[in-house]
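WARN retry 2 of 3 for item q-0093 after timeout on previous attempt; input resubmitted unchanged.
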Amino acid sequence: MKRFKTQANLGETDLLSPLRKIFSQPPDIDYPRIILVLTDGSVNDRPGTINEVRRNQEQCRLYALGISSSVDTALVKGMCEAGRGEAAFVINDSEIEGTVMSLFEKVCKILLI
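OK item q-0093 returned
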């Protein structure tokens, strides 16, 4: 499993560059490529980010967890729709454990098919 990190700058995050780096790597035919995005804000290029996922949807499934009331819901939902995955959102700290576990269960179902 490879991990690609992006750094938050307390403004708009560049998510497009790490996604391009991921998609530039050849997929492993023995293992499905699952991308999990955790975000608490917005990105500097929402349409470009969603389109990058859409262009590469045959080589991945993208799931996203939006955290906080200020998260860009259109970004999270758009990436997940383009990436054939699912979105989840957490506003209260008390909801995070159940929401994360539910999202991971959905990811695991894909891996077991």
